[in-house]
Design goal:
Elements (H helix, E strand, L loop, with lengths): L6 E5 L7 H9 L8 E5 L10 H6 L7 E4 L2 E3 L2 H11 L12 H7 L6 H6 L4 H9 L1 H16 L8 H19 L4 H31 L13 H16 L8 H11 L7 H11 L2 H4 L5
Parallel strand pairs: 1-2
Antiparallel strand pairs: 1-3, 3-4
Helix pairs in contact: 1-3, 1-10, 4-10, 7-8, 11-12
Bound molecules: glutathione.
Glutathione binds next to helix 3.
Length: 285
């Protein structure tokens, strides 16, 4: 790929969905510097609400891929664009199942909400002094700074983000009453229950349909890029170190997701990704 066609990827290292194109770029044989460059948008400072970034992506999310004069603002469109350009397209790109990609992205098991929401009093105490509070407060500073600068058509959108983030911040920095805490814990637990249903249902069935360890078969497909970053984030949401061995991942996830056992294909799936550079070297978590 020549220099004037170099792709630009807007992301943020700790962003779960921004890891989808990072895994894809490595799997598909693109090289940082040669084929693409990255620009970091610090979500923990609310930089995604900077009016300059809103011009690029009015939804205020990363990842974003710029390809010449084309701009892709969602992983669902970024990955096919990369596959179309790839020197090594995945074998199974033909039969991409958009439904499993959509299921992976469902808000009912949103890994960002699982990161920020506390399941019980102990988890609340942890998150109060940890990353959840730090993220919410840095993001609020950004939102307070950028909301007055938002273009008129996005003002309501940014102000709503400002309000909902302030509510999360109040939850962690204040002393919410018992009922408020209970309601919050119930919502957080529902996210984990939904994640368990997804793993034991749709994901298990999809892996079982193919002879290999991946949904794509012997090697990962487009669907797998989405699934693995989701799963990797759920693992760290469960307070496990990134890239933990399956011997600690499987029991911990089973415990948090209602105690039901996972089919062995899930362990094999995790192990298969632990053996891939695109997962390990990109430090996906
Ligand atoms: N459907 C989008 C979701 C992207 C998304 O939600 N990204 C998160 C980071 S993982 C984000 O940018 N959130 C904005 C924020 O934190 O304000 C996609 O698949 O690209």
């Amino acid at each position: 790929m020549s220099n004037n066609e170099k792709m630009v990827l807007y992301g943020f290292a700790p962003s779960v969905w921004a890891n989808v194109p990072r895994v894809a770029l490595t799997e598909l044989g693109f090289k940082e510097g040669e084929d693409f460059e990255t620009i970091s948008i610090d979500l923990s400072k609310g930089e995604n609400f900077n009016p300059d970034f809103l011009k690029i992506n009015p939804s205020a999310t990363v990842p974003v891929l710029k390809l010449g004069d084309k701009v892709y603002t969602d992983t669902a469109t970024i990955v096919p664009a990369l596959v179309a350009l790839s020197p090594h397209p995945p074998q199974t790109s033909e039969g991409v199942s958009t439904s499993i990609i959509e299921e992976t992205h469902l808000m009912s098991h949103d890994p960002n909400a699982m990161l920020l929401m506390a399941r019980d009093e102990d988890d609340y105490a942890e998150k109060k002094k940890g990353m959840a509070f730090g993220f919410a407060s840095g993001r609020q500073e950004g939102l307070d700074k950028y909301a007055p600068l938002a273009p008129s058509e996005l003002k309501e959108f940014v102000e709503n983000k400002q309000k909902s983030n302030q509510a999360l911040l109040d939850f962690y920095q204040g002393t919410p009453d018992e009922q408020t805490r209970k309601t919050h814990f119930t919502q957080a637990k529902a996210l984990w229950t939904s994640a368990g249903i997804f793993i034991r249902g749709v994901l298990t069935q999809a892996i079982k349909k193919t002879p290999g360890a991946f949904v794509g078969g012997e090697t990962p497909s487009q669907e797998d890029y989405h699934i693995i970053v989701w799963l990797a984030r759920v693992v760290t949401d469960a307070s496990l170190p990134p890239q933990s061995p399956s011997s600690s991942v499987i029991p911990r996830l089973q415990e948090l997701m209602g105690g039901h056992e996972f089919d062995p294909v899930i362990k094999a799936y995790w192990d298969a990704w632990l053996a891939r550079d695109s997962f390990v070297k990109n430090n996906v978590f």
